[in-house]
Batch of 4 targets.
Target 1
Amino acid sequence: MAENIVKSENNAIVEDNAFNIPQGYVCTLDMTTTEGKKQVAQALNGSTPLKDKMNEVINLIGVITTPGTRAVSGNDCTNNYLIADDGTVYFSQSDGVTRSVKVIVALWGAELANGNSVPVKCITQKLNNGNTLKTIVPA
């Protein structure tokens, strides 16, 4: 945060309020509009666990990914925010969701950018080692 502090011409200390998604991460919402800024703020400040919406269709209207840290292990991960057309935001730090979100955005990013919804759902696949992998698939 210290790098965001700048000195203005009148020597007042102010914070540089520019908000940027780091390179390599995704934000399909239009942060140049008031509505887009509201959606980003709401997504990053309040979400529902994606695990509560397994196998149910989500009409996706936006995606945000940011750097994250797993609470239990302290390992780096990606925070995935999936914004539904009803305003609900679903959150996951799953590596499978991260990979799936990149595919969804690569294939349907133009639709999302134009305000269209993309029906998706989160499924769980059991792996040979007994673990499970969450993925986002078209619905």
Target 2
Amino acid sequence: MKNITNSFFNFKAFFLIAILLVTTSCGKDFFKPADVKDVPVNIKDRVAKNMKEGRGIKLFGKDETGGVFQFASSNPLWRVSLEVLDFIPILNASYSGGILITDWYDEGDKNESIKITVKFLSNEIRADALDISVYKKDCKAYESCQTESVTGKISEELKIAILQKATKLKKEDLAKKN
């Protein structure tokens, strides 16, 4: 019992010394009071001033910002994808998550249906900006359905249709701006 209490007190002493060292090592300049006239009242003005002066937190030496995000209404890939897939009910559309998932769709044949997932990997209009997956569900009997991923023609045709329409839409938007 004596060993446990001694080690507990040793831990407390170590912890107190560590806190004391950390708080006193900050120095007098760290806690220098700021003059009221030099500190903007508005938070946005303070953030802008700190950024201009190069203050802030940089983890691991990186000076990079996050990705560039546009509003969904100004992103041609997003707008065109919704337009191309408008014949299928959308189950999940998350612009911030960069994904569109349709519900199961069949063209009158209740035994066979498809589901499409579009993942947006970039806001730029290019071939590697989209990852389209198509799933096919076959139901021979009412209870037994099998689902499989379909590769090839459908996903490639959807990708080409989306990219072509997005390119055309972007050209039209640029022409309107000029």
Target 3
Amino acid sequence: MARINRINAVLMIGAGLCISPFLVGAAIAQEVHFTPNQIMTWPTRSFEGDTLYSIVEKSGRRVLEAKSQGQASARYLERDIDLNETPYLHWCWQVSNTYPGLDETTKAGDDYPARVYVAHKTGLLPWQVESVNYVWASTQPQGVTWPNAFTQRAQLIALQSGEQRVGDWIAEVRDVRADFAELFSDSPSYINGIALMSDGDNSGGNATAWFTHLGFSSSKDAPTCP
């Protein structure tokens, strides 16, 4: 199943063929922050069953929980984000476990206990979308990048890897435009969608991820995790 390619397309559905002036104005006017409660209102795109999303108390804070038991579904938001004003994507995440033994460069191994990704339209057609996927890998080494097994238009970066930091809250900050420049030789001024998920449908794996402090900022300072 060309999951990432389909997610790329679904992020653009309803976004129109041009950038929304209202959303662009909102992005320019202030930094963009998504609370767990707001993310719970985002549409869900199911690919193989439904990852269970809920708000839970963890480490003294309300966070978003994504529990996959062999399922794959994403929470996604169609929104234009101005990378000139807010180029840094930040969030905190934690996972319960990884999937040992997967070859994540193959279709059978395209599962991650946690991922956050952003999409950029490159044309008018729904499939003309490039995405950068920030993943908590199971076997790919930290810092490695590779193309998704289903489509070259999705590139992955292993921000965390393996069991060493399982159970820890990790703060992430990424210069989204710099990542697109490195992976696609393109430096977009806007991205047009963001999504997150936990999935285990290809391998039949079970994992739970927790997310908080998701947003775009003009500062490269890392968020303070729970």
Target 4
Amino acid sequence: MTAVIRATTWLRFFLSETRARAAEEADRGEIVEKVIIVAAAAAIAIAAMAVIALAVNAKVGSLKL
């Protein structure tokens, strides 16, 4: 009977460890998604600033003093 209890205890421990590892990896996946989204937003912002800078430079270049 003690062998069955030991096996059951080991199986419960193994499953709880597996669940914990799966939860940690799921959190990492969410973090990676967030980093990719933030990087894409930053790239869009940089592109928008470059377009604005070009437009301002064109306007300033066309001014006659």
